[in-house]
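[Discussion] Sanity-checking designs against the backbone

I'm trying to build intuition for which residues belong where. Below is a structure token string of 714 positions. I'd appreciate it if someone posts a full sequence so I can compare it with mine line by line.
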């Protein structure tokens, strides 16, 4: 019943030898253990489970229809799977569209089909997260929409879009077939061994999808649900917070919903999607006015006629990927304290609203079959964009960039739907121990400043979407101080005309601005806080060390290596020696603006009675590291870890995009990402780590936060 799977960049003969060496000693049983297939019994009457919990953060409902198991052995089976995927995709699109409405019956909903707890069963599942008290309404909406599809079917336009989306997905996977990560192959082989799943490979599947998907008809799709939604083998699961004044439906209430759903009047789904292009008018091109190349990292810089900058790095790490980011100094630091909540939600308000003539639902439909997307971001000290695209959809990416600056939308109905999704979670935060704990940490580390308040129903109520939209418009009113970065499978010849047409023509007024330092940094001194919340006999501990920082590559490297080494020591001591926690973690970060500061966080879970013992163990490890330093063997482990991580990360677009942007904004030499970094790794030694420990584990400036239950269980 055992298999060994090995996938990676290795010598096959060597790996086979190692496998035989380590596994051949395992002997076959004289009487092999049978592989049993657990049966999930049928049920003629519905099975209903209703769960309540005082610490639950929200309400939800699932209705499950148990089905016979399916298998994919033949081309006919594969065609059936494609049909089912198209059906589920279209139904989920409808659920997503419904959730965008202010009076939506659920916060979010979805349909799925797959294994049901055992390999002997499949199941069709409809599920929704709902407002507290809205379980029955949400369940009815799920059933009514499934009945709408069963009665009227999908539209030809829906099927055409879904086919286009699925085929585009296959096309992208096929384009990346030579870049597939090892883990993806492992999962394929596991599925084959455990479930007998076919693994013909993406080349064959791509050809099959191209052949089969066009042949699937709307009539075939529309007949699927009638076979899945049955009177027998139903399971209904509802969950709700347990709190005063909140009515939780009974089993009879939930079963009555099915009767109402079958009798509810239903009209056919309709849609009207504009044929207008994304951009009403394609702008006349601007121009690149200067160019320079940073040869060490193969990055080119263009300065544009409107003052904007463009950096780009062509790569071949992925055939079908181009990453884009843009950044400009300012951010919410330029908003008055009184408007900070509106400013902090500004990018979210626009991202929820769509672009140009298209709301977010219609924009999603308009972009079907296009592998391109852009979202706006506004942080404390900057504003910008993040996006990605396939090389063949680059022009769509650039049009979306242009629209983010020139045609953002304010959709009050979309924000009302978002507000209705947020408020139930915010209202229940006070009952969730981890949320109360997290909010306490955030408020303490921000020194209770207005700008550092956690999101609550009270702070969320301060959001004025008109102010949010005005702040967004102001932040993106002048592209002249923006830098646009592109990393991926793109050439200068392809990129330049798009840059000149869509970025060099963005509005500019020549204003000069930067961020402001408007909030205090991390608190100084020693802080010890205990939060008592919840009833479960478990504890969480967080130690936070902070202080001023010199933001240089060498300092960041020292801070990183300290965290890597301390993670090793923490795991060895707390988990493997003491056996008192499962997954301790260490994280380190630093900021350059608005203040140059560092943060080292050590966190772990434990039983309440072990909190003090583990704190003493952690502080003892820190003291040893500061006084004696690490061993050469420990440093060698860190060096090897850094080298292995480096081998893979430098072959990803994400690494180059993040590090080019970070160094560019810091005014640091991009060439430092190569040989100088490798030299720091080679030079890593116990003394460097010991010095970092003395500097960054400052016992004069640290905080301890503990989460304990309100009362210990016997």
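Best answer:
Here's mine. Compare freely.
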């Amino acid at each position: 019943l055992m298999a060994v799977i090995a996938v990676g960049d290795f010598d096959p003969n060597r790996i086979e030898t190692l496998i035989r060496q380590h596994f051949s000693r395992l002997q076959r049983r004289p009487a092999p253990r049978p592989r049993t297939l657990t049966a999930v019994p049928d049920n003629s009457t519905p099975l209903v489970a209703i769960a309540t919990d005082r610490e639950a953060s929200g309400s939800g409902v699932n209705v499950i229809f148990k089905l016979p198991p399916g298998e994919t052995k033949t081309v006919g089976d594969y065609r059936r799977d494609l049909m089912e995927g198209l059906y589920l995709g279209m139904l989920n699109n409808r659920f997503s569209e419904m959730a965008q409405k202010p009076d939506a019956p659920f916060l979010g909903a979805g349909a799925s089909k797959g294994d049901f707890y055992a390999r002997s069963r499949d199941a069709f599942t409809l599920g929704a997260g709902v407002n507290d008290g809205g379980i029955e309404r949400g369940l009815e909406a799920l059933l009514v929409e499934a009945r709408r599809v069963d009665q009227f079917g999908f539209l030809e336009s829906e099927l055409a879009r879904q086919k286009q989306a699925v085929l585009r997905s296959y096309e992208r996977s096929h384009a990346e077939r030579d870049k597939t990560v090892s883990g993806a192959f492992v999962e394929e082989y596991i599925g084959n061994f455990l479930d007998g799943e076919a693994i013909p490979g993406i080349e064959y599947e791509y050809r099959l999808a191209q052949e089969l998907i066009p042949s699937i008809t709307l009539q075939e799709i529309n007949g699927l649900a009638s076979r899945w939604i049955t009177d027998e083998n139903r399971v209904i699961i509802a969950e709700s917070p347990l709190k005063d004044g909140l009515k939780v439906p009974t089993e009879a209430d939930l079963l009555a919903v099915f009767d109402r759903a079958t009798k509810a009047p239903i009209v056919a789904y309709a849609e009207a999607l504009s044929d207008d292009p994304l951009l009403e008018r394609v702008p006349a091109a601007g121009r690149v006015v200067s160019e320079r190349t940073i040869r060490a990292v193969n990055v080119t810089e263009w300065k544009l006629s409107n003052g904007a900058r463009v950096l780009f790095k062509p790569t071949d790490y992925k055939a079908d990927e181009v990453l884009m980011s843009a950044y400009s100094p300012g951010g919410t630091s330029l908003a008055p304290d009184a408007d900070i909540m509106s400013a902090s939600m500004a990018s979210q308000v626009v991202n929820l609203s769509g672009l140009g003539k298209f709301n977010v639902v219609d924009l999603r439909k308009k972009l079907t079959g296009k592998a391109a997307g852009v979202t706006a971001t506004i942080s404390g000290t900057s504003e910008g964009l993040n996006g990605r695209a396939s090389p063949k959809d680059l022009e769509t990416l650039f049009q979306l960039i242009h629209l983010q600056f020139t045609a953002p939308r304010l959709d009050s109905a979309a924000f009302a739907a978002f507000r209705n999704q947020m408020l139930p979670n915010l209202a229940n935060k006070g009952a969730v121990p981890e949320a109360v704990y997290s909010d306490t940490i955030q408020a303490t580390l921000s020194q209770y400043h207005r700008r550092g308040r956690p999101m609550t129903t009270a702070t969320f109520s301060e959001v004025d979407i008109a102010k949010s939209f005005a702040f967004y418009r102001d932040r993106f009113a002048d592209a002249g101080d923006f830098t646009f970065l592109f990393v991926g499978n793109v050439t200068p010849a392809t990129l330049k005309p798009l840059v000149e047409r869509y970025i060099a023509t963005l509005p500019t007024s020549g204003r000069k601005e930067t961020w402001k330092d408007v909030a205090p940094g991390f608190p100084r001194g020693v802080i010890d806080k205990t939060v008592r919340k919840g009833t479960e006999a478990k504890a969480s501990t967080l130690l936070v060390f902070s202080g001023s920082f010199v933001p240089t590559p060498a300092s960041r490297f020292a801070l990183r290596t300290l965290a890597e080494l301390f993670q090793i020591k923490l795991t060895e001591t707390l988990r493997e020696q003491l056996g008192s926690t499962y997954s301790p973690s260490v994280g380190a970060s630093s900021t350059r603006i608005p203040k140059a500061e560092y943060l080292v966080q050590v966190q772990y879970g434990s039983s309440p009675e072990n909190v003090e013992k583990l704190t003493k163990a952690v502080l003892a490890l820190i003291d040893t590291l500061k006084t004696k330093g690490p061993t050469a063997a420990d440093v060698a482990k860190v060096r090897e870890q850094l080298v292995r991580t480096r081998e893979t990360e430098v072959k990803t677009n994400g690494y180059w995009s993040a590090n080019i942007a970070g160094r560019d904004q810091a005014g640091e030499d991009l060439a430092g990402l190569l040989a100088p970094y490798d030299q720091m790794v080679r030079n890593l030694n116990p003394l460097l780590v010991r010095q970092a420990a003395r500097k960054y584990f400052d016992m004069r400036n640290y905080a301890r936060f503990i989460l304990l239950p309100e009362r210990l269980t016997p």
